[in-house]
Each structure stands twice: as structure tokens, then as C-alpha cells.
Amino acid sequence: GKGLFTYDPGFVSTAATESKITYIDGDAGVLLHRGYPIEQLAENSDYLETCFLLLHGELPTAEEKENFLSTIKNHTMVHEQLSHFFNGFRRDAHPMAVMCGVVGALSAFYHDSLDIHDPKHRMISAHRLIAKMPTLAAMVYKYSIGQPFMYPRNDLSYSENFLHMMFNTPCEDKKVSPVLAKAMDRIFLLHADHEQNASTSTVRLAGSTGANPFACIAAGIAALWGPAHGGANEAVLRMLAEIGDESNIDKFIAKAKDKDDPFRLMGFGHRVYKNFDPRAKVMKQTCDEVLAELGMEDDPMLKIAMKLEKIATEDEYFVKRGLYPNVDFYSGIILKAIGIPTEMFTVIFATGRTPGWIAHWNEMISSDYRIGRPRQLYTGHTRRDYPAK
Ligand code: SDX
């Protein structure tokens, strides 16, 4: 090592220990949740079934699934006093700022499930978080547009319920489109977990100190917010709007190659996938299905996105660097078609990622873990004396 402090490359922060939840092969474009390929889960499963799989390691039996769905339903309401929490924010606050705050505030309301060493408490907290994230996400949106909060309904499925709370009001109770509910469910499913990425590692590190699960998930939301991570889906839509017309694509590709310009092609590239992100393929398929069902095949954003993908994935600079569309590239086009505003996209990502975060948290807390303590490579001054007076 350099200087006085040697760097022990063998030291791994225990919060990033081995995991049985998700496997990624970046070169082969493989993503398995508890061994099941993401393509098969997207085709045959649904979001809550995948939540059960991530949490418990096996697909639920019919009875287990029924019990899980009713448990989640019974936790969808939030403490009535939480609604006052929002009033401290400006209406134009970024939804992720409010989401960070209100999820952290859950610790102040659910004292009866905070003993992290009690497996029952851990499961109650897991169920509460999966159940309440859509309710809180819809409240964040309603607050930003000055409409009253909508209560969850037990007669609707998870994704129908979310769209009901987002877009209905006390004055009208429109039926949620099954096409949009299925697309919403698919979006949540494709975001459910992704091994130990930046925000999941944040949740594990926070969890390794013994912090309560609500605080850990709030930390994960904060980490997800950045445009290099979960904030990319919002940035992709803004980039497509800025491109505005296919004729401008080459200019953006050139900018993305300019080393001095921090601009990157949002929705492209990945820390692990150097071939293609399997979720992007499923997301693109879903995008085509939803837009066709809605008669929006000629959505101008989609046209620009497809042309951008074609040009970028044939361009030597991108091919050489393994830069392909990632999970965020097409998701925003679907969310926009569902009617969700751009600034809410990362809140949707956080909602979908909650079962992954909490499954990793639970896996670590129930293992023989120690507090995470990543070490540094010290490159500063060696010891020196204070100048004599
Ligand atoms: C997510 O980790 C996860 O699993 C995350 C995630 C999850 O589910 O949790 O998958 C979700 O965060 C997906 C990524 C969303 N982010 C974006 O779409 C933002 C745009 N992408 C880039 O910021 C970037 O690709 C990252 C952050 C995703 C990855 O950054 P890296 O690891 O620095 O990329 P790299 O090392 O593979 O880069 C290789 C080269 C570099 O150039 P050189 O130094 O070799 O000359 O490619 C360049 C990079 O500068 N590069 C890009 C680029 N991404 C990388 N150039 C232009 N546009 C891009 N998007």
C-alpha cells in the first residue's frame, strides 16, 4: 500500500456479503430472481407473486399467494396523522424529496414492528412497506397537484389500486383500465430487484448498523434519486423531449462522446450489463403492447427513442463500450402513456424496488452479519508535525 495506511484489498464490507436473491450475468444479459429468468416472470408471474418470491425464496402456493395478497391489502392504509406530514412541503417540491421524508417518517408510527432481530417484526415491516409505498406515492402526487388524497380500496388489485389512488378523485370513480393496470404491474415487476446496486447496497449498509427498516428504505430512496441511477428514467424523457426530432439525434450522439461534456446518453450503459439489459427487452415489448392497445403507436417520443437506440447500438463508440439501452430507456414512455408525470418516474422506480431492498435487508439481518465498514485507499499526507511557534 501507499503511505502509512495500507489498503487491505481482501477486506469486504460485511453489508455486501453473498446473497441468494438475484443473479446477474452482465455479459450474457441474464437476470434471475431466485433462479427464475426475468423474462419468464414478466410473462407468467405478477408483481406481488414476485415480491413473495424475492422475500421467501420460492413461488407461493395458491393458498400462500391468497394469504399474502390479503395481508398486503390490510396494510395499504397509512396512519391518518401522516397526511399532515405533507403540509410542511412546498407543493412544487420534487416528489423524491417528499418520498424520502415520508418513508423515513414511517419509523415514527410503526413502533410495534421495529425489533429487527424478531423475524415476525421483520416480516410485518416488509409487508407494511410493500403495501404502503403505492399509497404514499399516490399521496405525493396528489399533494403536488392540490387534489385530496385517495384512500386505498380492498376490492382492487395492487396496481389497479395504485392507479385508482393516483387518478381518481372523491368526485369521480372511473374504472381503472385493465391494460394500464397490467402495464403498471409489469413496470413494478421489472424494477423489483437488481442484486447489490447502489441503492440496495445503501439499504444493506444502513441496515448493518441496526437502523430500523423504514429508515433503511428511506436511505435507499435517497441513493436511487441520482440521475446515474434511478433518476435516469426521468432524465431519459427530458432528453427525448430535448432531442425533439429525429434530425437532432446525431448532435446528441456526438455530445455523448465528448469526454469534456458530462452529458451522457440517459438510459444507456450499465455498471454490470455490457451486452444488453434483459429488462430493457421486456420493457420495449411492453411499450409496444401498451402503445398499440392505446392506439399510440406513432407516439413521437417512441419514434425518437427507437431511432436513437438504432443509431447508438450501431455506433462504434457505443458498441466498443458495451453501451446498450438499460431498464430506464423505455420505462418512461410507458409511464407517460399511463398518464404519470415525468417528475414522478423515480418515485415509481422506488415503489417497484421496495421488495428487493427489503428482501436484501431481511437476508442480511437474518444472517451472521457485522456492521459494514468499507475501507479506503489513503492517498493523503503522511504524518507531519505542526509548525513550531
Ligand atoms: C440503473 O446497478 C444497477 O443495477 C442499477 C440499475 C438497477 O436496477 O438498480 O440497473 C438501475 O441505475 C440503470 C442505469 C441508469 N443510468 C443511466 O441510464 C444514466 C446514463 N448511464 C451512465 O451514467 C452510465 O452508463 C452508468 C452510470 C449507468 C454506468 O457508468 P460507468 O460504470 O462509468 O460506465 P462504464 O464504466 O461502463 O463506461 C464505459 C465507457 C466510459 O467511457 P471511457 O472512459 O471508456 O471512454 O462508456 C462511457 C463512459 O464514459 N459511458 C457513456 C455512457 N455510459 C458510459 N457515454 C455516453 N453515454 C452513456 N450513457
From TrEMBL:
UniProt GO cellular component terms:
cytoplasm
- Write down the InterPro entries for this protein, in alphabetical order: Citrate_synth-like_lrg_a-sub, Citrate_synth-like_sm_a-sub, Citrate_synthase, Citrate_synthase_AS, Citrate_synthase_bac-typ, Citrate_synthase_sf, Citrate_synthase_typ-I
Where would one find coiled-coil regions in this protein?
none
The pathway where this protein functions is:
Carbohydrate metabolism; tricarboxylic acid cycle; isocitrate from oxaloacetate: step 1/2
Active-site residue numbers: 270, 328
Q: Which of UniProt's keywords are assigned here?
A: Acyltransferase, Transferase, Tricarboxylic acid cycle
Q: Which PROSITE patterns match?
A: CITRATE_SYNTHASE
Catalytic activity, reaction form? oxaloacetate + acetyl-CoA + H2O = citrate + CoA + H(+)
Q: Which CDD domains match?
A: EcCS_like
Q: Name one GO biological process term.
A: tricarboxylic acid cycle
Cite a single GO MF annotation.
Answer: citrate synthase activity
* Pfam families named in the record: Citrate_synt
The similarity comment for this entry is: Belongs to the citrate synthase family.
Name the UniProt record assigns to this protein:
Citrate synthase
Which species does the entry assign this protein to? Parathalassolituus penaei
